[in-house]
Queue: 2 jobs
Job 1
Amino acid sequence: MSFLTINSIYHTYFTQETATTALKDISLNIEKGEFISFLGPSGCGKTTLLSIIAGLFPATSGSIQLEGKPLKADQDTSIGYMLQQDYLFPWKTIEENVTLGLKLQNIKDTDGKALKLLKDVDLVGVEKQFPKQLSGGMRQRAALARTLAVNPKILLLDEPFSALDYQTKLKLEDLVFETLKSFGKTALLVTHDIGEAIAMSDRIYLFSANPGQIYRIFDIPAELRALRPFNARNHPLYPSLFQTIWKELESLEH
Ligand SMILES: Nc1ncnc2c1ncn2[C@@H]1O[C@H](COP(=O)(O)OP(=O)(O)OP(=O)(O)O)[C@@H](O)[C@H]1O
């Protein structure tokens, strides 16, 4: 039994005039603590799949199990979601934003979890500040702390680094990777950045579009995984894997 099992998910969006099959027969198994990336051309259904896993809407058909039980992401806190935009509440301080999920569940932060998490994401000293006083990278770190505060089993990361400048992005990849590993979290990352996917993942699923399907699976070699994330880019295997995925992706975009 896998930690997360996705069984033959199909999803069609219906409008009055059209029916768009966004996902066709998506099946995959993910083990606890794995870091998985979804890559693919625009419109191949990556966000649709994350949204279904997050419980934002049901799939047209198929099923998802977490630890052998049907996943009801909309009814518990098994799933944490981090997006390109941080969606912090501007009128709340960073500390209040981080504890919000706990408050919504009537859990008192008696053991100072928020402050510990802010330390984990290197944000000590800005607890009482408001989001607009922080840089984009700092706000994403606060968003990570907020996501982790409710102790989700799986983190869904939908292009969380793509709005950041290159240096901040590399630093945040490093911090997110190390933080998630230290908490033993399982992560699913949607990205358009091949390098980011190679540098962070155990496995990459490359999707094709119209309809969205799994086209190839790349297992990242152990030598690269051992150096994740930053130094994986310096391993001699990195450029050839990058080239292979680049060519596959290009062939899907034409
Ligand atoms: N609410 C919706 N109504 C109708 N069609 C939709 C809707 N959302 C997405 N689609 C269609 O479903 C398909 C998959 O979209 P989705 O956003 O999941 O792809 P994606 O791989 O995340 O794309 P991108 O990489 O551009 O973010 C696309 O053809 C898209 O136009």
Note: The chain has two domains: 4-78+153-239+241-245, 90-151.
Job 2
Amino acid sequence: MRSVTILGSTGSIGTQAIDVVRRHPDRFRVDALSAGRDVAGLAKQAGQLGVRAVAVADATRGDELREALAAAGTAGVEVVAGPDAAADLAGRGSDVVLNGITGSVGLRPTLAALEAGSTLALANKESLVVGGPLVQAAVRRPDQIVPVDSEHSAIAQSLRSGTAAEVRRLVVTASGGPFRGMSRAELRDVTPAQALRHPNFAMGRVITTNSATLVNKGLEVIEAHLLFDVPLSRVDVVVHPQQMIHSMVEFVDGSTIAQAGPPRMLVPIALGLSWPDRLDPVDVAIDWTQAASWEFAPLDDEAFPAVRLARQVGEAAGTFPAVYNAANEVCVDAFHSGAIRFTDIVDTVSAVVDAHAAEPGDASSVAGVLAADAWARRRAQDLVAG
Ligand SMILES: NC(=O)C1=CN([C@@H]2O[C@H](COP(=O)(O)OP(=O)(O)OC[C@H]3O[C@@H](n4cnc5c(N)ncnc54)[C@H](OP(=O)(O)O)[C@@H]3O)[C@@H](O)[C@H]2O)C=CC1
Ligand SMILES: CC(=O)[C@@H](O)[C@H](O)COP(=O)(O)O
Ligand SMILES: [Mn+2]
């Protein structure tokens, strides 16, 4: 029986993780849950799972959460409220901490889980990208981070086929997003509603928008480099609109191992919770008796420059990846509020990254990384306002 803490339990990853643990009550006990603001959803989940503690990031919602818990008949559950609440729960030593929070705000919880010795089932790719070496330095044992991001789960599964010395390249697949095939000129006028129509996955607003700009793939290239210790120059991206192959590893003898499955998150989440074991049941497999065509195409870096920019910030390292991510988080909000166009998102991120070259930050401490994150947010906001 593994004890589990689920951060971001009210989101897309969090609710699917709860589905997995509820299907396997003999394998998992949920200690704690955390959310940003959704106290009603959190209280309902706490009642279903019988957890000991819940956290809400919005400090003003602690009393509302207590009332919702009492109404759900679960008074007695500990309530933690405020910006440090998720990190508090993450650091309490559950066997597994699933980080399903969105954004760089997931950095402290990621570090807290690792420092407490828990296995970190990592969906919150932003914390690894922005924290980079700080997160790597907090790792105490092999396999302490188990990737939940589907591409990286696929790579981790494929890597079981060979040793690190036998790996030549990692190949990360990309859907291409809802605007695949469009030119830069056509992208100028796409709307937020169109950007939220991901071809295959129902996900939160930020990651769905990042899939449309390809910033998600940029983050994932850096994530793969950091997780698997493969140079950025040997992490490729291929557009595969069906997303049946979730990513691949090419080995030195010319063999490629790919992991395939329907485009859903249940398998990566289940593996994140139970690694290295597979649970049964989790999801249905691909029906190989049905005719199907799977396409593969190169990425259009002119229309979608986000991956090229991510490689640049990944090579620059230091606080550059944190700046890329933070500026993007601001621009995603600005796009959805109507303040900027779709193509302005990556253009603005690029301008903030360029400006950062003149005043690089200190990546050797969490405070330094968060200062760079805050600097990039201010800079992006100024550009958006201007
Ligand atoms: N969804 C997917 O299929 C995939 C997601 N990921 C990654 O997983 C992470 C979560 O994505 P997704 O589930 O789609 O996102 P959602 O927007 O659906 O959920 C985000 C979760 O984080 C909580 N949250 C928001 N702000 C804070 C905060 N300041 N402190 C603590 N918790 C907060 C939200 O709470 P509330 O509901 O109260 O706002 C919610 O529970 C992201 O990093 C994403 O890139 C990776 C691969 C696939
Ligand atoms: C499910 C998952 O891991 C997401 O990151 C998804 O892969 C997004 O796909 P694209 O960014 O390729 O559209
Ligand atoms: Mn992914």
Note: The chain is about 45% helix and 15% strand.
